[in-house]
C-alpha cells in the first residue's frame, strides 16, 4: 500500500508549514498520507512522541512507504525505526533539518535528544535524503551534516535562510516534492 507519513517537529502541528500541501500533491500519485500528530509539541515528551509513532506506524511500513520527517521529528523517527526488531526496507526516508546530537541553541531539548538512540545499521530505505537549508538558524547545517555523515549521505542543501517554516514562505515545498517523486 502506498503510504506517506509526515512527522512534524518541535512547536509544530499537523496543520503547520508545507505538510498538507505535500499530502495533497502525493494523493495524485495514489499515496495515502498520515500527518502524524505528536502531542504537546511546545514541550515534547519523549515517551508520548515515541508512543504516537508506535500507534501510527507499527505494522504499516513496507516497500511502498515514504517517511518525511522535519527537525525534532527526524531524530524521533530515527529512534523509532531503530527500535524495530525487523524493519522492512521502506521506499523513502526524507530527513529535513535533521540532527542526532544536542543543539546548543535549544538546550531545553537536551533531555529529549539524550533519550533517543539511533542505530543507523537498523534503518533501511531504498532512497534516503538528508536535506538542509544553508542558513538555518534553528538547526545549523553542521548538525544536519553530522547526521548525513553517520548515515553516509550527501547533504542536499537548499539555499534558504530559515528552517522551512510557513512564516518563511514554506507553505509549499517544490524541492522536496521533486525529490520524493523522483523515487516513486
Characterization of this structure:
The protein has helices at 19-27, 46-57, 72-83, 110-115, 141-150, 174-183, and strands at 3-7, 32-36, 65-70, 90-96, 125-133, 155-158. The protein is of the alpha/beta class and 184 residues long. The chain has a single domain, classed as 3-Layer(aba) Sandwich (Rossmann fold), CATH 3.40.50.1820. Strands 2-1-3-4-5-6 form a six-stranded parallel beta sheet, sandwiched between helices. Helix 2 (46-57) crosses helix 3. The longest helix has 12 residues, at 46-57. The mean pLDDT is 97.
What would the average pLDDT be, to the nearest integer? 97
Indicate the structural class.
alpha/beta
The level of helicity is 25-40%
Rg over C-alpha atoms, rounded to the nearest angstrom: 15 Å
Shape: globular
Number of helices: 6
What is the name of the CATH topology?
A: Rossmann fold
User: What sequence of helices (H) and strands (E) makes up the elements?
Assistant: EHEHEHEHEHEH
CATH architecture: 3-Layer(aba) Sandwich
Number of domains: 1
Strand content of the residues, in percent? 15-25%
Number of strands: 6
Q: Strands across the major sheet, in which order?
A: 2-1-3-4-5-6
Contiguous runs where pLDDT drops below 50 for at least 5 residues: none
Question: At the first level of CATH, what is the class?
Answer: Alpha Beta
Short structural summary:
The chain is an alpha/beta fold and 184 residues long. Helices cover 32% and strands 20% of the residues. The protein has a 6-stranded parallel beta sheet, sandwiched between helices.
Amino acid at each position: 500500500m502506498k503510504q506517506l507519513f509526515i512527522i512534524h517537529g518541535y512547536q509544530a502541528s499537523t496543520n503547520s508549514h508545507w505538510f498538507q500541501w505535500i499530502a495533497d500533491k502525493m494523493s495524485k500519485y495514489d499515496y495515502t498520507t498520515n500527518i502524524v500528530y505528536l502531542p504537546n509539541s511546545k514541550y515534547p515528551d519523549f515517551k508520548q512522541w515515541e508512543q504516537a509513532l508506535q500507534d501510527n506506524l507499527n505494522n504499516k511500513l513496507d516497500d511502498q512507504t515514504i517517511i518525511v520527517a522535519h527537525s525534532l521529528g527526524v531524530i524521533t523517527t530515527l529512534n523509532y525505526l531503530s527500535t524495530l526488531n525487523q524493519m522492512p526496507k521502506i521506499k523513502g526516508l526524507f530527513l529535513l533539518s535533521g540532527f542526532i546530537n544536542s543543539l546548543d541553541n535549544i538546550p531545553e531539548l537536551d533531555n529529549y535528544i539524550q533519550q533517543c538512540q539511533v542505530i543507523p545499521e537498523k534503518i533501511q530505505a531504498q532512497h534516503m535524503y538528508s536535506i538542509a537549508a544553508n542558513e538555518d538558524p534553528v538547526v545549523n547545517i553542521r548538525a544536519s551534516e553530522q547526521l548525513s555523515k553517520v548515515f553516509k549521505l550527501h547533504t542536499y542543501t537548499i539555499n534558504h535562510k530559515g528552517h522551512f517554516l510557513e512564516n518563511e514562505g514554506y507553505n509549499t515545498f517544490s524541492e522536496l516534492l521533486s525529490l520524493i517523486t523522483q523515487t516513486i
